[in-house]
Structure formats: structure tokens, C-alpha cells
Specification:
six-stranded antiparallel sheet, five-stranded antiparallel sheet, elongated, mainly beta
Length: 196
């Protein structure tokens, strides 16, 4: 092993255009040539890139965006919303048929649902995010709402989770009717992303 004290500089490249150094107080990784990126790889695959403007990209960060494939009508109770077109699904942790996002690793996740519906029920319509079968975030979309009018509702939450926890997204109604509680296509969509 190598041991250094105080200020240490390791210069790499033909023009010393990449440095790793410690100045006695802080540790640095520095690209010194304009236009060159710093790329971090594991197992030969790029995991993080910092470009010369300081923008950071993490192409393998778990996340998904999906939009509805087919409308859903009101049903008494909390209905898990399933059947989604995949916009993107990095890591394939979201399953359309179950409407479930399974957490690949512990962290803080940003989750969102934005749903369009038209209601006939004289009562509550709610949209909810569940974690491991328990309600963790929700919104009351309407109460005694007039019939055949469309309304957009968004629920967003930043939530912590452990590996193999799961989230699903549900629409709640106090009765079963012929009204659309979740409209088809890009008018209704959900998403999730690992923040860190």
C-alpha cells in the first residue's frame, strides 16, 4: 500500500489532464482539460458521467414512467391500477400486469401518479400510493362531484424504502358505477425514480 501525508498529487494523461489529489483538507478528482468528461465504471459498464459543464448522468439509476393502456371504471374500494404502456423502465423493476414497482435497493424514491377521471358517484374519489400493502400517500379527488366532468389529480411523494419493498398505485371509490376512474392513454400516468 502507498501512504502519503498532507498534499499529494497524482497526474495522469500525456498533458497531466487528469488529477487525483489531497490538499491536506479535501480529496479531489479533477479533469483539467476542457471538453473531457469524467466517467465512472463498474464491471466495465458506465455508471456515472460528469461532463465538463458539471452535469451528472447516471444511466442505470432505477426508475420508470408508464401511461395507461385502457380505461378503468369505478369499483367499490381501492383498485390497484394495472395495464400500462411502458415509456421507460430502467432495471425492469415495474411490472405492468401487477401495477407494482419492486424496490431494487434501499434508498429514497420519488413516486408520482397523475390520473384523469370522470365520476358519477356522489361521494369520495381518491388516488393513493401504497407501500407493501399499506397506504402512504393519497389525495381526495372529489366529493359530491357533478356527473360526466373530467378532472385531473396528482399525488407525489418522496418515500424511503428497503430492498424488495414494493409500491403500487390505486384508485378508491365508495361505490361501483359506469364512470371512468382512470382514463386511457397519456392522460393517466405514473412514475418512480431512485433519488439516492
Amino acid at each position: 500500500s502507498l501512504r502519503f501525508r498532507d498534499s499529494v498529487y497524482i497526474h495522469m494523461g500525456n498533458s497531466n489532464d487528469f488529477d487525483i489529489y489531497h490538499d491536506g483538507s479535501h480529496n479531489y478528482i479533477s479533469g483539467t482539460t476542457a471538453g473531457q468528461d469524467i466517467v465512472i465504471k463498474t464491471a466495465g459498464t458506465e455508471r456515472m458521467r460528469i461532463n465538463s459543464s458539471g452535469n451528472v448522468t447516471t444511466p442505470n439509476q432505477p426508475g420508470f414512467f408508464v401511461y395507461k393502456n385502457g380505461s378503468v371504471t369505478e369499483a367499490n374500494g381501492a383498485t390497484v391500477l394495472t395495464g400500462w404502456h411502458i415509456g421507460h423502465n430502467v432495471g425492469s423493476h415495474f411490472v405492468s400486469s401487477s401495477g407494482r414497482f419492486t424496490v431494487p435497493l434501499a434508498g429514497t424514491y420519488l413516486l408520482s401518479m397523475n390520473i384523469m377521471g370522470s365520476y358519477l358517484l356522489a361521494g369520495d374519489i381518491q388516488y393513493r400510493i401504497y407501500k407493501n400493502g399499506s397506504l402512504v400517500a393519497g389525495s381526495n379527488a372529489q366529493s359530491n362531484y357533478s356527473a360526466n366532468k373530467w378532472k385531473q389529480t396528482c399525488v407525489t411523494a418522496t418515500l424511503t424504502a428497503s430492498a424488495n419493498d414494493y409500491f403500487d398505485f390505486r384508485a378508491y371509490s365508495g361505490a361501483t358505477t359506469s364512470a371512468t376512474i382512470c382514463y386511457n392513454s397519456t392522460y393517466s400516468h405514473i412514475s418512480g425514480y431512485l433519488l439516492g
